[in-house]
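Usage

Read records sequentially. Each one opens with the input sequence:
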Amino acid sequence: MNDKSIVLNQEQIKQKIERIAYEILENTFEEKEIFVGGIAGNGFLLAERIVSKLNEISDQQIKLFEVTVNKDNPNDFPINLSIDDQDLSQSTIIIFDDVINSGRTMIHAVKRILDNKISVLKVATLVNRTHRRYPVQADFVGLNMSTTLKDNIIVELGAKEIAYLA
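and closes with the structure output:
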């Protein structure tokens, strides 16, 4: 990892996920049911971990779903949800991605969810770049980072978990 600057190590990623879960609970404790959506890939893996932690600390009914977005060409392919749209009616939804870089993927995912008549929609991310092209504001953030447009933040999940600046 000579040319990589570590942003979060495995233990820090675990701590950030736990803190985000507690923040979500603090902000939704009055809700009997919440939906947690993860953008396919690392966003969904992190959403699964958030749901697992929420199930430990809350008696809310938490429903997990996946949002599939073509990150390279979001306008050219349908954005799919792994849940029926009518299930989201009048609900509280938190949508998760590992990194908000430009904001393009998240804004398209949010647009798709807003096709439904929902009550509340919040955005969560492990790493939030503060320099982006699209107006996406994350409500729950593990780490805020000021970067340039040339910088790229990579999150690797699995046996060895790490987030780094490349």
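Summary fields computed downstream for this record:
- The chain is about 25% helix and 35% strand.
- The chain has one domain: 5-165.
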